[in-house]
User: What shape does this take?
Amino acid sequence: MKKTISNLFKISLSIVLLYGCNLSSPEEIVDISETSNVLSIPAGFDFSTHQKVTINIVENAAYAKYDVYAYSDVSVKTPTESELAGKLVFSGVPSNGVLKQTISLPTYYTKVYIRRNENQNISVTAKDILNQEVNFNSTEAKSTTQTTSSKSSANIDSDGDGVLDQYDAYPNDPEKAFNLFTPSIEGSGILAFEDLWPSTGDYDFNDVALRYQSVVYLNANGFAVGFDFKYQIISNRAGSYNGIGFEIEGIAPSQIESVTEPILTIDFIKLNPNGTEAGQENAVIILTDAIRNTRVGADFILRTVSVKFVDPISTSDLGVAPFNPFLISNLYSNTQVFEKVRDHEVHLPNMKPTSLGVSLRGKEDPDGRYISQSGYPWALSIIEYSVSIEDVMLREADTTNANEKTYFTVPKDTTSITRAYNFFKTWAESGGSEYKNWYTNGSGFRNESLLQ
Assistant: This one.
């Protein structure tokens, strides 16, 4: 009899372990201290893989157009135009001799490239990032190339916004002239969540993960008039419905003219007439209230939420995408009945909940900082400058290159990120000073067999 009971217990335990994290039931709550090493992180560490960098450009000529690029190759060779093209972060023309923007760069990037075009005299200058700033004066520019253009069109400004057509990304639209990309014109960011907060999980960060790119539309003076937030869900291994959104801190809902294309399917998110979430102090944009309901057939597709401002906003006030992103962790009860829970928000480390979120401080997150007692976050944010959302979609569809993923990929079910990525622990415990590029495909950086 005892042997029979023992066998039944082993079988039951095997079933629980096998189905603990799937698409039809909630993920099992696992004590991370029993499944992986505890992280001993320095005080104040926020698990950030990227940095905000302010670009300050002073122009002495009457007119010049600038393009700013992120480029990680630290060799002495100046990159070619084609090498730089996919790394474009923003363009602009100085107003009253000054051009200033804030961008987001990986923490292991140490410089930017500044391309100056004055009457087709072009220079490309590498500038170091010092104390999260880049300062450039046009007197530093040394023209290396000269291009030719049609004299008949060189001084035409079709929309009358003060930006010549040859430099204007939108020559027939007086409200828009330039773009600011996060992370870059051919790059994308990743947000990855554990949805069991404030309980600990298995820290595979595949409960919900998405790739995104933000394109901010700038007017002739470099102020934001709106932006598109493109995203695609790349993993949804949670058992609950889960929603996702972001808060634009410091921007009031009344400053938003319109929000288009949020996907709301389970009727518990309330919106203002302009499309922002109702009841919020800051503007909150909900992408969807139920991630699993955004599939087309069996697939998650590329989607875009567009935001337009009432009046132009400085990019320093707007901040940098993904702003303050959060997961709305909807729950199942013990009877498997779905509960629509709006106030259960999962944020990046050290970020604050929105007006409608709650701070659930307890044993695992006593300080309400979204960092567990074991030292793990519930959310990660990563940016990659050479991998677009569309590129990843094509590579994922090409099964012949299934083992040649050069981009960040979430771990398989129940595989802690410390097992999948060999230097995550070293990076975290060093406060981000070592292995800043732990999430890349450097030699020995990751265990491919443990990734989705």
DSSP finds seven helices and 21 strands in the chain. The helical segments are 2-18, 32-35, 81-85, 315-318, 389-397, 417-420, 424-429. Residues 1-36 have pLDDT under 50 and may be disordered. The first strand starts at residue 50 and ends at 58.
